[in-house]
Structures are given as structure tokens and as C-alpha cells.
Protein 1
Amino acid sequence: MSKSSARAEDLDDISMTAQELHILSELDSRQYGFLLLHQPENEKKRELVLKAVKYLQLMVVQARRQQKVQDENEPNNYQQISKKISIDPKTWVKLGHFHLLLEEYRKALSAYQMFYKVQAENHWMDPTFLYGLGLVYFHFNAFQWAVKAFQQLLYVSPSFQRANEVHLRLGLMFKATQEYESALKHLQLALVDNSPCSTPKSIIKFHIAHLFEVQGKVKGAKDRYELLLRDKTITQTLRADIFRQLGWLYHCHDSLGDKNQRIPLAIHCLQRAHEADQFSGQTLYLLGRCYASIGKVHDAFIAYRNSVEKSEGNADTWCSIGVLYQQQSQPMDALQAYICAVQLDKCHSAAWANLGILYESCGQARDAYACYLNSNRGLSNRNSTEDTFLPSKLPRLSVVGMNPHLSQRISFLQSNLANAPMPSATSQSNILHTLTDSHTHYSSVITELTAFVNYIGQVELLPEADELLFPPDFFLVLLVVLSPQFYLLK
């Protein structure tokens, strides 16, 4: 039996009832966000969609095989035009819809692009194609292409059934690209549209409030956040997000009052955010920043430690820990924290700048110069890729707060180092590990910590003991100083 006939039999083996075909005919990109096929109650429909995908894929394979056989059997005569076996373009767009509903975004994009290829002149006539294509581009953060697809959709079909979903995503993308007037226009259009929406109205209001915040319209943002808190129907997660943003507003903006009044309010809001969502390391990090700003070093360390326990891969937290250690004149501990930060985020400009300040204060000009250069590169990279799409994104630590003349320091060190002799082996030893040696040094710490953790995992407590007998601050030191290297192994 030939492979082509086997494929044909496979195609014949997939049978569907009239009811199943009717269900499939009604499925397209408009059900995205509403029909959640991964939910247990939609298991049967998911199986049906998977069967349809398999059938369509076999159709494509069979058509291509037949075309290949036909081409091989044609005589080698350039004047003869061979008959092409065509695949209905609707096959590709339907396949794209099914993959989208299954959240198989790469496969959906591939199918949509095939439809665009065969329907290059008429693709705009199918609104569900434009919508599905825009959703896929939006998923991959390809905002330029997503905006183009969505705007084309609204132009050809102003009364599209999911116009509110389109306006919402356009608003979020324009906010990310700092086109704030367009963002506000589309978010408000999404808010006033009473058509069914996959995103609750309260979330849209939150995005509008955050839009005011990123524009620096502090009072407008504060009023909108507080108005949202009066809504008793919002989820605990959203309540935590609102309190966190409100707390950070109080921390950052002098226009909201005197510091002695603002910081207690900020701490109160962040504590309320923590009560609403106790698993957020982000909230604890911001709480630590507030404590640090008023000199409560111990409380700040505890908040940072708890933040690390919740979300260990946070470079901002380790940079803040480094600042605290540096302020407490503990350069070795500060070095370890900063190294953790730049290992987690190699473009973390604040960590690199603060590490440079630390090296310079210890007389290690070459290491300081290298760190300042990395800080400048990190700042450039972050400015070109910064994503303000998510309102819960952590506020970025400011380099300017510790060193407002970074460029001047780079120029100064560059001119001095150009005339300075190279360090010799007999020169005085450095106070801190050099930037190069730090990675080697902490690699050995990783090995030791891994062995220690494996040992702890095998220790059984004595019946009369509540805990292992280690010095009181041992686990705090282990967590705050050594654990980041262990976390990097995960």
C-alpha cells in the first residue's frame, strides 16, 4: 500500500456528524478569550477542535503529495503548463482560528500567514482573519504589526463584534509605546462599550488609572485608584494591585504631601496590598524601599528577605539589599548583593552604577570604570526595550539618586586610567574581589551552598528539638547573602 493511499485512508477515518460540523463552523477568532478549551467543562469541544485540526492538516498534506506526484509524472516540456492542485484559502484561516483557540500561537501565526500569502489582495475582506492575526501578534508583543492588523480591522468593519477587545488591546499597546492620548482614547472606548468582554470593566479602569500614573498625572491616578477601591466586587488580586500602586504613589511624589505624612500612608497601603495578596514578592520589595527611605534598616532587610522568599529572581531587590549594606559600611556584603543583581539582569543600570560607586570608594578605579560603562549600556538597552505594558511592573531603581554625574565620572576615570600604569602582581591587594574574580569566587559559593542544602535536606530533627542548632542569625545570613547564587541554579 502506498503512503499516499495510507494518508487518504487516514483522512477517510476521521468522520464527523452534522452537529459537530455545525459547531466547528461557528468557531473562529471571535471566541478567543471566551471559549477556554483548557477548562474541564470544555474538554469535549477541545477534542473536537483537535480532531478538526488533524483533518485539515491531513488535507493539506494529501494535496501537497498529490501535487508532488503530478509534477514528477509530468513530461519535461516547458511549454506545457501543469495543473495546480489548489488548497481552499479558507482552510488556512480556519486552521489558524483553531490553533488560536487552542492557544498554539506559533502554529496559528503560520496558518494565518499562509492565508495572507494566497489571499494577498483580498485578505482584508475577512475581519475574523484580521482579528486573529492581531491577537497572535499581540501575544508575541509584536505591537507594530498588531496595531496595523487591528486598525485595518476597525476600518473595514467598524461594528465588529469584538471591537471592545480590539480597543482594549490598542489602548494597552499605545500605553506601552508611550502614545498616551491614543491609549486613553481606546481604553475609554473599550470601557463604554457594553458588549461582552473577556476583561472586566474594573481591570480597564485600573489600566486607565495606571495610564494617568505613567504620564505623571498623580492626582488623577490617585483619585481613580481610590474610586476603584470603593467597588466591593473587585477581586483580591486587583485590590492588592491597586493598594500597591497607591502605596508607591505616596512614596514617590512630593505633591501628595509632606514626607512624614506620605511614607506612613505608603507603608499602610503596601501592608494592605500584602494582606490581599501574601504571595507577592513585589509588594514586599516596595515595602522594603519605604522602610529604607526612613532609615528603618532592620525592617527593610526583613521585607527584602521575605521578598526574596516569594520571588527570588528579582534584580531590583538584590540591588536594594546592596544599597542597604553599602550604607551600613559593609562593602563585601554589598558586593555580593550587587553581583546577584547583575547576574539576574545584566542590563540593570542601577546595580552596575552602585557597584561602580562601591569599587571607586575602595580605590579600585578600573573595576569602577567597567561598572560605569556597563551601567550606561544597560540604561541604553533598557530605554530601547522598556515594557510599560503591565501596570504591576516594578518601578525601576534610579541611578541618578546615588550618582547624578555618571558620564562625568566615566570621562574622569577614562582620562586618569589612560595615564596610569598597569597594576603589577606586587601591588597592594584589593579590598574587594575584582569584577572578573567575583564570578569565579561565587561559583565556589554555589558549590558549597548546594552541598550544604543537600545535607540539610537529609537531616532529621531530634524528637525533642524544634529546630537545628545553628547561630541565631545563621539562616538570615545564608538567605540574604548566599541564596541568590543557589537560586540561579534552578
Note: Confidence is low (pLDDT under 50) at residues 1-9, 78-82, 383-403, 452-490.
Protein 2
Amino acid sequence: MGFIAARLRLCVALGINHHRLTAPSLKRFYMASKTQVHPMEITFLGTASAVPSSTRSHSCLSLRIGSDVWLFDCGEGTQRQLQRSVVKMGRINRIFLTHLHGDHIFGVTPLLAGLLNGSGGVTEGEEDPRQFLDVNNPAIEIYGPLGTRAYIRSSLTHTYTTLGSAYVVHELRFPDDPKTGDFTNLRRHRSESPSGRNIQQVDGLWRDILTDGRISVSAAPIQHSVPCVGYVVNEAPLPGKVDPQKYIPELKRTNTPMKVMRDIQEGKRVKLNDGTILEGPQNRPGRKLVILGDTYDPSPIEPLALDAHLLIHEATNAHLPGVDSRTKEEDTYESIEARTKSRGHSTPQMAGAFAKRIRARTLILNHFSTKYAADEDGDDEAKLIMDTIRGQAAGIADCEVICARDFLSHTVVVPAD
């Protein structure tokens, strides 16, 4: 259907019979005029805090960018959640850990074993071909704070796990952390690549820890009860929208080849056969996703997070008088906030306030106390509680607010403006 529509649009603009339009010319126009945008989709695999419940699993979410899948945190049971979800496990190539509390990392090594052929072993005297893998070409990259490398190495070593492909760990080092070393006396695991980096902060931030031309990832410390990291995923500027009616008459008038439409789509200046200069459309800003770990104050990440298209922020506890029967009479919004902050966490209002400060377009609340069941399967009480939590954040955030539940998927669209 896309080619047919392109043929008709082009023929109308050129004033020619569509049967005279050659396939190569049509393909050049179609590929040039079609905006190349990679899909971005978040899927929540676990939305509980501390312990899982019957409706919420331990912390983990996936980000699909085109055909690649990245995980953010990897709590216990992630592998099983993946098998029940729309996420394709075989596409996972990066894992970003926010901090080393167990409910965020206990699923990492089981997942590595599942992804990288780590099951089983051989008896004495038999040869295991997995012993001869190329550790310089890791299949999985893992990012996390100091201790990530030691935890994974220890877990794989003491469970006698042999992987069929290599992995690599890059650690985000805080100013008080050692600048070198692996934080363990264990030898490097046979499946671990030696190319792992120890990434130092610059001006309080870890900028561009990953960049591949279309996507970059930066990070910053956020306040929790242990060292914790928030991540910012930035998409490179996107091509502007091309209006064929603006350019094709000029190409026709000057008998300029249609192939220049590709340059116009990329925002370049094009010189026509008679010397006329056509300016391509201005690029549009790419999408920005801010994915936070547990926090009672994410202020340090604010410079990186401004104007986010999507903010994912925890909302562990809430004061719900008249809604949640477990609310204590002596509790107030202030007392619940103080108690929540003392444990390193946030309320919906705190999440909404940060969303407003960074001018986020959408806020998704995540990491709920086990007492807040997901609003699914017609549970009216759970729906009322989650609607109230959403409303508490929305009353401050000045943007769209969504409460996450396990297996919720959210597409991050390219805004029209």
C-alpha cells in the first residue's frame, strides 16, 4: 500500500501518467520521503517493590529499540516473565542495573544462563565446547554500579555455570569508589570479557556511556539508601517531515533527478540544475526516556532529564484515606512521605513533582508496595487504589500519568511538534 500511495502522490505532483513512472524512480522517492523512525516500546516485566505479589513480579522492564531489546534491572523471576511476555528474549543484548538490591538483580545470572546456553555440564574427562569461546566478542553488555562485576562473577563461579557466549560488565564508579579493580579476589570468569570499563563521573554525571550513532545513554546518581543510578536514553535528531508538493515541482521544472529527494529528506541543501537552492526540512529532536531506579530524590539527574518524552519514576507508598482500608487514622500525607523518604523511596506526589520540574510529557509510575495489587481481572478495589495513586501524581505532574502493571507495554511515539 505504501508504494501505491507513493506512486499516485508522485504522479499527481509531476503531472504524468502513473504507468510511465519506473520502479527505480518510485523506490527512490518512497525511501526518501518515508521518515525512518525506529520503534521504541517499553514493556514492564515486574512492577513490585521489595517482594513479589500475586499480581506483581520483581523489578524489570524492557526497552525495544528497533530489533534490539535492553533490560533495565533484572529481579528474580525475570526469565519466566519474559517467556510470558511479548518481548523476544533472543533480542536482548544489554542490561542496565540501577542498584544492587536483590529485588533488582537476583534474576541476572539465571537470565545469562538462559540466554547464553548456560545449562548443564559435562562429566570428568569429557570436553565441553563452551570452554573455548571468544571472550573478546561479548553477546551481552551489562552496566551497573560498583559490585556488579563481582556479584555476577561470584554467582557464575560458585554455581559452576559455563556460558556458551561471553558477557561484559561496565561499572559506573562513584567518586568514593576505587578507580580500578573488580571489587573481588575471584579470577575473571571464563565467560567474562576483559574489556569491561570502569566509567568515572565527570561533573557528577556519566555522559554517553553508550553511543551508536542513533542512540546514546547517559546516567547520573540518584538518592536512595544505597548507591543508585538513573539512566537517560537519547535518540539522535530525526529527519524532518518532507512535503513532496514543495519540492517535486522544482525538480520537474529543472529536470533534476529524483534521487536528490534522499538528500532533501536528510535535511541537506540541494542545488538544482539551474542553480536554485532547495533547503531540506529541519531535523526534529529525537525521543528522550528517563528510567529511574529506587529514589527519594532524583535531583542529580535533572540536567540530563529535562524535556523527557517519558519519565519512569517509582511510587512505592501512598496515603489513601477513604480508599485503602489499611490506612491508619494517625497517618497524614506528610507522615507517609517522611516515612517513605526515610526508606529511600517516593510517593506519587513526589514523582509528579519531579515530572513537572523536568517538563516530562508522560510519567509512568512504577515499583509499588506489595499491598497495592495491579488493577486487572476486574478487581474494583485495586482499580480504585491505582486510580487514586495516578490522580495524586497527575494533580501535580501537569502531564499524562500511567500506573504500570506487569506486562503493560507503552509505545514512545515521535511527537508531531
Note: The chain has two domains: 2-34+241-279, 40-113+133-237+286-411.
